[in-house]
Amino acid sequence: MLSKIIPIKYEWDVVKIRSKVREVTKDLGFDELEQSRIVQSVSELARNVVHHAEEGVVLVEEVHEGDQKGIRIVVQDFGPGIEDLDQVIKRSESPASTEGYGLRQVRELMDDFTIRAVEGKGTCVEVRKWLDVSTVESEE
């Protein structure tokens, strides 16, 4: 099973992460549109680390659940954490608010989205995207 851990500290690390995720999604069989959605999501999350936390890691791995196959991406930062996570989530759900827009975008692009924050310790976002088995089967 494929698994990569990539450190993130600088803006140029985002480029490296995008490239690795594109490579992994292609190897897993995601079509170009889904690859772009996944890369956009991880890019947004990685930029949040650089801008708000200064340092973190990105875990990218292949996952299997039953007959489903997909990708799991965990972005863990070592920053101050989000002080009022519930408030940020609530604002991100409002189309009128720009705060949390990136998180809303990631939630919309990915199949599963989980976020946890511990004030003073960091924030962890986990996302998953499942491969559309019917698309893979029709290409074979």
UniProtKB/TrEMBL annotation:
InterPro entries on file: Anti-sigma-factor_SerPK, HATPase_C_sf, HATPase_dom
Record Pfam families: HATPase_c_2
GO-annotated molecular function: protein serine/threonine kinase activity
Kinase is among the record's keywords: yes
Keyword annotations: Kinase, Serine/threonine-protein kinase, Transferase
Residue ranges occupied by any Histidine kinase/HSP90-like ATPase domain in the UniProt entry: 33-133
Domain of life per record: Bacteria
PANTHER family for this protein: ANTI-SIGMA-F FACTOR RSBW, ANTI-SIGMA-F FACTOR RSBW-RELATED
Protein's name according to its UniProt entry: Serine/threonine-protein kinase RsbT
Species of provenance: Melghirimyces profundicolus
